[in-house]
Amino acid sequence: xLPLILFIMLVLANGAPVIACxxxxxxxxxxxxxxxxxxxxxxxxxxxxxxxxMVSGTLSCALFSVLVGLGVWFGFWFGLLALGGDLLSSFxxxxxxxxxxxxxLGLDQIPEALIPMVFAVVWLKLPLWLAxxxxxxxxxxxxxxxxxxxxxxxxxxxx
Length: 159
Fold this sequence. Notes:
By secondary structure, the protein is mainly alpha-helical. It contains 5 helices and no strands. It has one domain (2-151). Helices cover 64% and strands 0% of the residues. It is globular and about 45 Å long. The chain crosses the membrane at residues 62-83, 129-150. This is Putative integral membrane protein DUF46.
């Protein structure tokens, strides 16, 4: 049951920002990087990484974590680390000259799943193989369902 709970938390961290953007587009739309540029004169993360997304993703994980008995602090840190992994992916993509929301298979999914799952291994004493299984499940689901969510008008991009 725990792997399913952690998978759902990854989906929440990834999906809550998308839903929050649809429900409250004017709420905290400012980019996390404040529009700052790195020394290569490219954005740190890009305009699609907003405070609304950081807050909604983190709080959704914290709330769900309380509901399933893992505690608010586990959920808070799990969500924050998942979103931190997403920021890391965006940072790397900008350094590679890739535009915001461009597709980078693996890079778009692995850091945001792997970083919080390493945290789960430490905090929950989760076996490493089980954590890696959850990462693989998340990557496969993200790649498989993103085009469907795009066709339904939930996502802005098909990847």
